[in-house]
Each structure stands twice: as C-alpha cells, then as structure tokens.
Amino acid sequence: MFGLFGKKSGGKNPNVKQDDAHTYRVRVRTKRHGEIVEFRFTKSAHIGLDDDGNYLFRKAVVSPQHFDRGELLVTFDKRYNVTGTTGEGVDFVPVAEWED
After folding, report:
1. Cβ atoms of 58 and 71 closer than 8 Å
2. How many domains, in total, are found in the chain?
3. Strand, coil or helix: 97
C-alpha cells in the first residue's frame, strides 16, 4: 500500500553490479589499450566516507598487461545505493555488456 515496502523502481546504476547485500563489482576499460579490469568491493572493507559524509569507493587502476593507469570512483547514498560513477583514464563497462 502506497509503495512503502516495495523496492524502488529504476535507480540502478548500469555500471555497477551488486552481487549480494554487501558486495559490488565494477569493470572498467583503460582508455590507452582497452584492457578490461574488474574490481570487487564490499561495504565493510572498501567503502569509506569523504569529508562531507558521503560514501565512496575510490581505487587506482593499473592494467595487468600494459600497466595502463587510471582511477575510478563510485559514490553511494546513505542506503548504499549507487549515485554515480566517474573515472579518469578509464571508461566503465556497462553490466549489460559483461560476459560472465
């Protein structure tokens, strides 16, 4: 009734896959050589707070074959819903394009 207990429709970020209640995955492609690098991160071990009280996951990217460098940033709201993804030297690979 009134949508109080249902899940929010939409709002999912196309670049981040949530494996379970605590675990997320993201894949990026380096701009220089196009290598794909995957990161798996959890709420308790990898997501931190910035100075403004926002939740985030920031990670330096180094590709294994060509050592391309970059950085990715995933931001969250207080309920750990993904609010944004940005990258420097990398492009995010949408979850729809993953071949698991």
Report:
1. yes
2. 1
3. helix
Report pLDDT digits (tens) over 19-28: 999 999 999 9
- Comparing 5 with 16, the larger pLDDT belongs to 16
CA atoms within 13 A on the CB side of 57: 24
Three-state SS string over 38-58 comes to EEEEEHHHHCEECCCCCEEEE
Let me know if residue 70 belongs to a domain. Answer: yes
Is residue 87 included in any domain, yes or no? yes
Helix (H, G, I), strand (E, B) or coil at 74: strand
Sheet (strand 48-49) strand order: 48-49, 55-62, 69-76, 82-88
Instruction: Confirm whether 5 is domain-assigned.
Output: no
